[in-house]
Amino acid sequence: MLDHDAFERIVTEANQAPSVHNAQPARWRLQRDVIEVAADLSVQLPEADPDQSAIGLSCGAAVEATMLACTARGFQTHVVDHWDDNNRHTWRAHRLAAQIYLSEGGRPDALYDQLGARFTWRSNFEQETPRLFGWTRQDTTLVLDAPTRTWFADHNDTASLAILNRPAFRRELLSWIRLDPVHPRWSFDGLSREALLMPKAVARKVRLGFGPLWSLLRLTGGTKALTAERAQTLTAPVIAAFHVPAGLSATEAGRAYLRLWLEATRLGFAGWPMAALTDHAPTRAAVAKRLNIGADRRLVQVIRFGKPTGPRPPRARRPIAEIMND
User: Which residues, given as ranges, of the chain have pLDDT below 50?
Assistant: First the structure.
């Protein structure tokens, strides 16, 4: 049903899905009329993602993006979620996320056109009243008022600093951000200085501050200034808290996460995740309490949304040979 070239085009499009830390753990292979998506376990970041929930979320977004790319080519899709099976034997050194069964007669999904337009914007947003006509998500609590957005900005900085105070986390982060274009993985994965919208002078401060000078900066109070995002966060007109049923698998959560982001893209927004709010357990609980998210729901991610103040930064993506298995 799918030849090699058609499958390659689908995978290339699907890999535009958001990936936590831009690790891009999703891998694809075609088994007759079934596309398998699995997590390459060699790309796990143990400090940032000890329970593989971020890997599962990223793979779920990749599954949904694959479905979108398939429906755009006239296929119907049926997705079977395997994340909670913890299947590591079907595909060596991988954890199976889902199987996508293909048949003829599909119709393009309305969100397909937003897949290539979606991007992350890690800087100030335009100052304007957000227009939310067409927003349909019931799994997302939108924060629009200034006092609550300020509360989120303050808690995000506090949680981020608490996480960065762990030396092992900082070492892992420095190994994953690309502060110099000569880095061999600059265009492929991780967080480049371009993607972070980080000037060269700031990159030098980060390399030293997150590395050998952290302890000294901490004594003088400099770590707070080095890691703060409060000013940029307050420019975001919308903060979206994405939450799902407590028992939903990471793959299914990732599928919904992509659709949430694509709906925001359709409204003209770029996004900037506030990962610290959910990675730091006490802050995650505080956010859930603040927004009245009950115990029957799981807070997955909080995202700043707004219109960017500059051009879209380059997108780093793994080459097809790394992500597609024949």
Answer: none
